[in-house]
Amino acid sequence: MGLPEFWFLIITVLFVGYFVLEGFDFGVGMLMPFLGRTHTGGDDKVSADADLADPDKRRRAILNTIGPVWDGNEVWLLTAGGALFAAFGGWYATMFSAFYLPLFLILIGLIVRVCAIEWRGKINDPTWRRWADIGIGLGSWIPALLWGVAFANVVRGLPIDADAQYTGGFFNLLNPYALLGGATTLLAFLTHGAVFLALKTAGVLQQDAMKLAARLAIPTLVVAAAFLLWTQLAYGNGWTWIPVLIAAAAAVVMVAATAAGREGIAFAATSIAIAGTVATLFSVLYPNVLPSTTNEAFNLTIDNTSSSHYTLTIMTWAAVFITPVVICYQAWSYWVFRKRISVEHIPDPVGLPSLRVRSE
Known about the structure:
By secondary structure, this protein is mainly alpha-helical. The chain has a domain at 22-42 and 53-193 and 288-349. The protein contains 14 helices and four strands. Helix 1 (3-35) packs antiparallel against helix 3 (55-66) and helix 1 (3-35) packs across helix 11. Residues 44-48 have low confidence and may be disordered.
């Protein structure tokens, strides 16, 4: 394995980490409007908890499950983007030019989401918090959909000319395969987020999250199976069946585990299924990094887009020393904040009074 192949593998691992970890963050944000309501299940066993579960406290409990880790999870994207820029400059330049509008929308969504999470509790006003919740929702739904669209288009290929310039338009990206990819990531992150909430909460909120995960599991399995089968039959080869089958098996376990209420097994299964799906996309892509639908001779590959050997060598040494530290730190943060959260743990809201209240 040469350094270009090694860094292609590293970038694959970074995107796997990003989609697995940030995937449940997106799922939690997307589910806040649905699970952030008073429980109406009619279960006498949890009726006492339900009386405490007013909508705002439920939404705060939901948000607190990702509070200590969401910003650390986004570091995987920053690292993947930086590694892509440094190791495969040609790939980075053409892909970001072709996906300018989708990536711009993703960036706007992530910025809005960050501001909404950080500022939600700064002012003690229902209207302020409601707008923050809208920002969290939009900042989760938009990237969850568009990441699938973008990566499906990378696998399918783009109209690229001899100068590595994208010659298509925005609507060229909205093809059936790409839209199916977007639906796959959207449903996968929704299910992943619901299972994560079931793993990280207690009481009535945990039960509601597990029920929702069970409802989402089968549609997710069907859509993801269709996308993986299309990917393999259209773009794969013999050995790429391996990640496809791993992802498929994990998705089946996910359905069984959510139906049985085994949130730990379900979370491991959704994580493996997402990892297997991302690994499939990169596997069928290799040795290309961005195929050209105009002419195969214009394909961007790991060889004609990689940086110099010296650059890749320095990057490799930096990764050897820094990566273990980052992984250990993030693992430690997950261990510290491993306890479950229930609505009873949420104190009364704090923050500055709204301008309306202060003016009165």
